[in-house]
Structure formats: C-alpha cells, structure tokens
Protein: Alpha/beta hydrolase
Amino acid sequence: MTAPTISSLRVNGATLHYEVRGRGPLVLLIPGGTGGAASFDGMAEDLAADGYTVVGYDPRGMSRSTLDDPDAEQHVAEHADDALRILDLLSPDEPALVFGASSGAIVALHLLTAHPERIARVVTHEPPVVEVLPDAAEHRALVARVQDTFRTQGLMPAMAVFAAGLNKDGDTKDGDTAEPEARPGLPPRAAARAEQTMADLPYFVGRIVPGFMSYAPDIRRLEGLSDRLVIAGGQDSRGELPYRSAAFLAERLGTELQHFPGGHVGLTTHPAEFGELLRKAFRS
Structure:
C-alpha cells in the first residue's frame, strides 16, 4: 500500500488531519460514525490508481483532528464548512466529487445544499436523516434515551440502546452500525484502528449522535440538485434505520436508491466492490 501524504488544516475551533493520494479530479471522502481517514484505506488507493486525487480526513474531534474546546456542541453546518475548507484548499478552481458515509453522508448533503457550485457529484451512503421519516418522533425519543443512558449508566449501555434502535429487529446481535471492538489476534493496523474507534465512542455518542440525528435536510433545495446526488443503501441493511432514512429521502426526491455491497459499514467489509460501485456512481 502506498503511503498517503499527511497534512493538517486549521479551521474554526479545530485542527483537521487529512490524507491525500493520487492525482486528478478531487474526490473528498467524508467518514461516518467513529471512522476517520483510515476507514477508507481499503478503497482509497484503488480510487487514486483510477486517476483521482483522493482525500480522506478525520472529522473534527475524531482521532487525530483536535478540538480547541473538547466539550463544544457539534453541528452539521460546521462539519460541512470543514469539508468546504478542504475543497477550497485542494480544488479551488474545480467542483469536486464527494462521498459521505452515515453521519458523513449528512455532512455531504448539507455541503451540497449550502455550496452546490463546489460540487460536481455527491454519493451519500445511508445518511441517518431520521427527521424525514413519518415516525421521526420515535427516533427523537431514541436519541433522548441514548443520551439519558449515557449520562446515568455509561458508554456501553448507551451503545446497546443505540444499536437496538438502529437495527430492524430491535436487538444488538449481528449489528453492522459501528466499527468492531479491539479483539485479540487482529493485525496490528486493524487493532490500532479498533482501539481508536473505542476511544472516539464517547465523543460520538455524546456529541455527534444528538447533533446530527436532529438534522433536517432541505428537501426543496435537494430536489433542485437531485441530478448531482446519488443516495445509496446497503444490500444487507434493508429495514434498519439508516437504510430506511436513505430510502425515504430518495423517494421524496424522486430518485432511485442505489444498492452497495454489505450493510451500513460496507465500505470496510467489502472495500473493493464498494469502491468499484462508487467509481461508477461518480461517472453516471
């Protein structure tokens, strides 16, 4: 694997870690959940080899991207402004291709609506925009339960409540909503990534979940930009909450939901197949 060029960018209230591979039109990869630039390692090099400049980064507060105020509330618009700053730095004169996964897909949606002139095409994989759903009130209550459990019982009970609310069968078995925990026998790189995931979980649960799952996309604005937007769901996550949100949003916009391999984290479980479909989506 070719090592990326690693840099940092100072933004409002944070310092972002980002990684660049290849040469060509810019592809910005926006990770979701507790993922960072490392979550794209399995497909970023193939994208770069296909003639793109590929940029992944750690969202503010995650992994190597530090916050000036670790207790600051997190807002989708501010995260989208971070992504814009990267675009302006690395592709100031040309619109970019953007991929966002999960909470990163919410960021990508906001980036498209706020700065469409900077975007050539956006692919969003299972954005959990629960506010578009008819039963949105139930999911607001879920977020409130997660936050209450986090405050009163701690991280892992809160994650159990969250996973049960996301999964179609209401339990936590075979969940595909987060990166795996660190386990004995993992290769060193995977073990380090799993360890970082666990370290980022409190921030994700306490800051990202409430800040992002309350976000309501601008449907009317997205309707006018739908020719630049691909909404995708996982082949194996039908019925789960992020899939439902993506499918309902696609229906509202009158577009076809595209299916990518795997479930909610298919980009890490099926990186080659996922990357191949992503390249096709960028070209369509």
Q: What stands out?
A: Residues 188-212 form the longest helix (25 residues). Confidence is low (pLDDT under 50) at residues 170-183. Strands lie at 5-11, 14-21, 26-30, 53-57, 66-67, 96-101, 119-125, 229-234, 258-260. The first strand starts at residue 5 and ends at 11.
